[in-house]
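Pair request: fold both.
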Amino acid sequence: MADDSKATDVGQRYALALFGLAKDEKNIAAVEKDLKAIKAMLAGSADLRTLLASPKFSAEDKGKGIVAVGVKAKFNMTTLKFLGLLAQNGRANALASVITSFEALSAAERGAVSAQVTTAVPMTPAQAKAVASALRTALGKDPEIETRVDASILGGIKVKVGSRLYDASLKSKLDQLKFALKRA
């Protein structure tokens, strides 16, 4: 558990440094676009995840691999240099944390808030609009919603905003009921 918090701290520090650099160079949007593309690539490629997470690959190999992916995707030079530095410093495994932290910093800069919405089945456009409206009312800011589908929650919805988790999933309600029955 301690390793997770260290990785998060590392990710936040690197994200803050990248955000400061991108802000100075006035290309926050381009860097964020690149990071979102990497996030999608990580989600879709087991080989890329293995490259970044495996200790079998050297920092140099990880750097070459991730920079080659960035060059192929025509990433901004700031993003490419950052990816190389991250790998060179042996922190390639913290890339997902860096991306999440950077997105939060960028959203805060725009006056928006990032929210991760998880449902058991894909939401319809009307449902997504209703969730966005409810979040806008509750938070007082425009939400930037990232949706996920996780059948294991069985039904309902989970919304994560920053470090807060609002869990109205059927799975958690059943778990609570199970716990209450065991105590009785």
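--- second member of the pair ---
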Amino acid sequence: MKSKTKLFAFILLAISLVFASPVYASKVDDNPSSEEVRVPEKKKLGREVLLNEKIPMPIAHQDFLYNQCEAKNIDFKKALAIIRLESGFNEKNVSGNTYGYFQIHEMHHNKLASRHNTAPAPLDPYINIKWGTTLISDLYRTFESEGLTGDKLDRAVLSAFNKGEGGFRRTGEATKFINIYNNNLNWINSKY
């Protein structure tokens, strides 16, 4: 009888450990709905806590952005600075023909929806984050392949994100946009 009791206790302990494990608790779907996201309280990179309640963006959205940035080799704080500049962290922001967190122009919607197999729904925060980080990642790859690095690379990416790649190549840097971005990046950094 004691061996059955010990076996039963061991099984209960094993089950509770599985359900309490971070791997089980932090399932993150590629394009989750708000109800499906389970967000850890804090996610650390080095010593910094990157998911931050001082940033006026839902933690679930920050977590999804963080994961997209990690997958696409984008600096998380730089992405937050672009979002703050473009939409003021308003996921439903519409300005002319641009939409959502990253203010993605409508000319990109169908192409990005097809590329990512998503609905053409730029005001869905998860779709907008996926699309915005894709555009930024593509620009980094383009200008890195041309030999740009460091600050010159960042300035080219920011300018092309603001003006379009063709606009940047025709008219040069988006100096005003870059200056406002730098102010936003300083603000983001002040929250950490």
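Observation on the second member. Residues 7-47 have pLDDT under 50 and may be disordered.
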